[in-house]
Structure prediction request, 276 residues.
Amino acid sequence: MPHHWSELPRPFYDDWSHRLRSAGHALWEWHLGLLDVQPPSQNGAKTAYGEIFEAERQRVLDGKPLQLVREPVWQAAYEACDAHNLSVELLADQVRAAKLLLGTIRFDDSQDLNAFIRHWAVAHARLLAGLAGVDQSWQLRSIDELGRGFFFVGRLMTLAQDLEHDQLFMPMTDLEQRDVTVAQLKAGDVDESLRRLLWKQSIRARDALGQGQSLIRDLSLRRRFALKRWWHGALEMLHEIERRDYDVWSEPLDLSLLRRMQINLQAVFGKAAGRS
Prediction:
């Protein structure tokens, strides 16, 4: 069964020229394919999975066939990296992160969460940016922050579904500070404490998107439009969550056709400035 994250929008999936489209798709299929990896049974011991994933990560670094990922997926990802001089270490980083996506997920503090995001979302963002020719050292921080920002927005969008799988992508210290329990989150019992908790997560997302904003001016006209469209779209989704008073349980999160059209107009004519 496809992972519920695969139903989310895929930034830049269809924003490539004909020459780069197959590679862009291959990088996304790699990223999404790792969501559905099912290691061989180890008597139900999740700790044993670490060795399995580490061996798989090493196979990526060595350019060898994989055991946990379908051949068309890993082969296309290898070919994309080889053809466009992209680092396979960024593919391997995602394998390292994928082992944490099995079963119950908790992060003790922001440091633990950020380590996961660095290997999962940031590695993916750097590959996509590298494919677009955006890989200078002074651009990496903006790329990393955009990867973080899109990840945070996505996790707010899938919060209810994540919790159904007993997975939570926010620091437990944040819950403790707001006196919110995982049980309350799972129930979708929205009170002022929970709203303030999700407000903090949305601020974290806005801050990351804002830190990545400077990359826009470094891009060609076509790529600038694509990034601005996704950037404005992410901010608009955060505004939608705020408009719903942080109730992400009652109805599916989506943007109307009119608001999508407004985002496209903002990408063409507007400045890349977020809501206050």
About this structure: DSSP finds twelve helices and two strands in the chain. Strands lie at 105-107, 167-171. The CA atoms of residues 126 and 185 lie 32 Å apart. Residues 272-276 have pLDDT under 50 and may be disordered.
